[in-house]
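Lay summary

Proteins are chains of building blocks that fold into shapes. Our project writes down both the chain and a compact code for its shape. Here are two examples, one after the other.
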Amino acid sequence: MTDAAHRPRRPRPPSPTASSIYSVPEKVDPTESLHGGPSLSGLSLLSDLSSDGNEPTQTWRPQQKAAAAQASTDTSLLCDDQGERYRIGPRLGQGGFAEAFAAELASSEDCPEAPQPPVAIKRLRPALRADPLRRRQLRREAAILATLHHPNIAAFQKLLEIDGEPALVMERCDGLPLQHWQHLLTRHGYRLRLRATAQLLQQLFLALQHLQQRAAPKPRLIHADLSLENLILTQQGVLKLIDFGVAREEQQPPSREQPALTPLSSWTPEDEQLTGLHQIGGKRTYVPPEGPPKIPAVQGDLYAAGVCAWELLSGWRFPILPAGLGAKEMGSLIAFAATGLPEPAWLLLQRCLHPNPQQRPGSAAQCLPILQRLHPDAGCGAALGKLVSALLTTPDHTALPLPQAVEPLLAPLPFVET
């Protein structure tokens, strides 16, 4: 087993400058310092950096999980205006304006002995719970989630009202965000083989297809915050898309004859402030090189999905791209991730990451046949779930115990796909 002091050396991706033709250095030591925050030319190892470019996220390290959970547990009962009571557990995560807690419905008088399934409750952070704009944003998220029913999207259950403050009751996805999952996997010296990676990507594009094929007359839905951090791989081996806080329905370009479609019947100018792509903090690598569009379109989600595919295939974090990046520079980045892989892997990256948004796919459905040509391993779900469980329970610098079903999915670093 490779420990942290003797990790295999890996090639480093090219730096995406807008005016240069670059070469890939033969070797780079992934343990050397690459910290210091994102820059126009910076790429960082998924195994070495957290999502914000600083030290790796500590709360997902197995040996610290119990302490972190204990520190973030609220043992009080949460009571909504209808009298339902939820027993709040440890905090599962937090974003810029909201946080999520493990919870379960407290026994009711009608069914005092009935077991209650675990859930997650998403509510505003304490400093924002009285903010009317943030309350409206959370209610909008509930309205959007109520229209979605797909196995690869975290299920919405109900909207709670607590003295005027909204809270979302969601399916609890026990597992790891793909960012942290790949971080831990790489630290143990492994990479996922292509067919298993294709299975994860297939689930991602199926979730996007569901957003884009809602029943008429509902417009297509744009997630607008797609990233590895918002994709949870559960202990059942199922990928779940989460966090629809800035999601919105697609709008038609405004014209003199017809005004732009409104995403919701209650859409107001204040909502525009809550859903702009510029608000996505810490995820600039998923914004296309042309920048956030004035009218978001599904091509933005497909570009972000291409970035997710690039990161899963390469094991590196995608760089922040300079404005005006050309096809030659993007081609070098694609070549770094896809060299040695079958032609469909190249095609998927080339289409989703095309510098011209008009040349990207018009829907996720157009990408699924490409993924099918990579022969995704449909039977690897249970093994992926066992791998998640092993990563959650194995401390750093300890050999990763691999169940027999998991071994065919992994290859040691460095490796060449065959």
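And here is the second example, written the same way.
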Amino acid sequence: MSPDLQALAVQRVQGRLGGQRLPAGFEFSTQALRFDTQDGLHWPGGNVRLRLEQAQAGQPERGELNADQLDLAALAQIASRLPLEAAVRERLRVYAPKGQVDTLQASWQGPLTALQKYAARGRISRLEIAAVDAVPGVKGLDVDFDFDQQAGQARLALNAGNVDLPGIFQESLIDVASLAADARWQRQGERIALQLDKVRFANADAEGEAQIKWETGDPARSASRSLYPGLLDLQANLSRADGKQVHRYLPLVIDQQARDYVRHAVLDGRATSVRFQVKGDIDQLPSVDPKKGAFKITAQVVGAKLAYVPPSLQDSGDLPWPVLNDLSGELVIDRMQLRVNNARARLGEATTLQVTRAEARIADLNHSQVLVDADIKGSLPELMRQINASPVRAMTAQALAASVVTGNAAASIWHQL
């Protein structure tokens, strides 16, 4: 034991506690142990057997840990009283793990901060880890795992929890109703490869399935000249998506103005048959060379409400542009270009004006210039009312404000904003 360890001043204790000194270490065990310390720490129970041996006779430092019904939050609280290296105690403090270790069998060689060999298998329920800097966090994850220093696999399941993805999305905390996946990984020296299969997920905003592959990059070929952030291959299909929440899932690599435009322009609607294809050097996404990868999202949109010129792009006091209602069509995001193809809609509120064909395009999402090309038909008086209630009134110096018209109209418009 380290002489720097602070003593556990126990106030109440129940269960069995055992320990013995070894020639170069110690063994410690508990059975149904519960205790409270004088300074308010609480250990709720669980069974643990820990064996630690120092390096000797050419053999490295080694350890074994067997545990069940182990409370991670309680472990993090009493970490300062356990024979752990300072770096391990600091990680427990920063990541603030919670959950229960249902079963754990682990062994290792070398110091915990520089392991030479290790192996572990077990199950953790309701795992919670805080997001720190760019490292993701999670709440409510169940994990069955089996791994060593070369490879591993895990079964992941999350119900009524969340994931926190800082540095990827502006609103990094995402609620998850359900998520399941099979994970596999391999490690050869500094090279790491990870694969997530049979990924199924659902929340209030979307539902679908995916397959994800990631591996470290080749420093000789990658734009970052580094192993990280690596190469990504993501294929996903969504059976449903809420149009009002699309902006939340646009990654931070897309310009802020473009993300704000989507937030303010898409007022309602739903999408089906949404497909994601993302492949290439993460440093180059979404502007990846099409010969080296892809960044493409396609969706069939129905029942949408689109403010194609949202008030956020207008000056104070400007009349609003008419909104497109009951919009249907194809949405395509291809690298840094956004397109709406073959769209149909109703122009304005409470009108019979029909947009029989519409195309919209943002050629570069880093510069949110929107081009709209559409054909409109319907009642000429209704069309005139829409014109006089929009910025076109000022553009025409109110020349049409007093006009009286009858009949039907068919018009083509082309607008750039």
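What can we say about the second shape? The longest helix spans residues 86-95.
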